[in-house]
Write a structure and sequence with these properties.
12 helices; alpha/beta; eight-stranded mixed sheet
Length: 334
Amino acid sequence: MCYCALMVQEGGQEPFISVIIPNRNGMQSIAKCLAAVCSSHYPRYEVIVADDCSDDGSRAVIEAYPVQLVRLPARGGASAARNAGARHARGDILFFIDADCVVRPETLAVAARCRAQHPEAVVGGTYTPVPHDTGFYSMFQSVFVHYSETKRAEPDYVATHALLIGKELFLTSGGFDERFLPILEDVEFSHRLRRRGVPLLMCPGLLVEHIFGFTLSGSLRNAFRKARYWSIYSLANRDLLTDSGTASLELKANSLAWALSLVLLALGVTAGSGYALLALLAVCGANLAINRGFASALFRTGGRAFGLKALLYYTALYPLAVVAGGLTGLLWRR
């Protein structure tokens, strides 16, 4: 097994961090991910990539880097890959990221400081507002995730794109549920730990750049898939109306406003109802007021032109995928 050269300074005082990355056919991003993490300025760390039976050639890419490659014997999903990586970790601190994330040179040092300040907590980071690929739909998604996950110092969950936890706590907790839904395993894991009394904290300076590669169709498919599984999980967990990270109350209000607006617009046009059009204006105004924080983040990150286009996309088209995914999840759950 090989380890990134920068970590082998055994005489240092810094804690030893095990960076764990699950991979499943990550050919498009894994090289950028590993090049970045192996260039970290932090002195004591290892990188473990747990490969979930990839068949796209990405394992050959991984083997070209000084990291430990753990091969799963059979397809198990991201949860199984992360758990396998954790079992092979030498560090007392585990730092989970994804194969489509690019850490900054200082990311691991920030992680160590956050851990030192909150040794009993599960600490989370998030995406940079500007992603690694700066297309419109990728930037929209990165701003959305960054804003949603950093609103509260004590989040509802900590996402696996930047999750920092003590190894002992992780192993005694049972790790990620390998029989869970194909996504949101980090939400279930966070909720399970919180019920045990483990605090969840957000470290806004713990940032990774995400590689989205989103087009319009990719953005809408992502919204549909996330909304579908969020609704399935939230019904089972009885927290459908909770303000939970990217499943925020703002997003839920935006989706409700979109549906009401369609009804009111139809009434205004077909029945010639002026009251319906006035109600439509009131709904749109209330929605903008509720989402003013996210709107400000859009304008602050991308400027006026991007902010206007992104706000229009968020209020007029994005809810179509969110509502369709949510309804599909509700029907599946029933």
